[in-house]
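Translate sequence into structure tokens.
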Amino acid sequence: MANETLTNINSYLSFNLGEEEFATHVSKVLNILERTEITEVPRSPDYMKGVINLRGTVLPVIDTRIKFGMTPTEYTTNTCIVVMEVEMEGDTVHVGALVDSVQAVLELEDSQIQPPPSIGSKYKSEFIYGMAKNNEKFIMLLNMEKVFSSDEIVSIKEKTNEGENEIDKTITKE
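Result follows.
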């Protein structure tokens, strides 16, 4: 019986974008980084801030606020990069998502998750697979695979490769 209860509990990392609280399943979260120097990549989509060097690999960083149609991120001491794994059409891509602040790891049972609103949401509802109530506030649970279209993933991968060249240039100058 105890094992059954454990399988129905899911852990989610919650984070803020403006006044709104979002969460993603912890299985998608690889790391949480302090904000670091981001190398801009020319001609990349407006939501792609650039790339960073993460332990020898190039990681694309997106401004999650822009991706969700909000104003660009204003950097504070709480701003951080949540490194996530996104799978699309059999391909796995690591993406850094710029967020205003990380809140907590929440344990949510399936019974606490409600379907997203069908109308009236200012965020694209296909990104959101559920809503959870926590301390009288709703948290939008994100489906990271649906945040990006397959074209965007291809674009991010191409820009990441261009970013590798930019980082290589920076390293050779030092």
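Note: The chain has one domain: 9-168.
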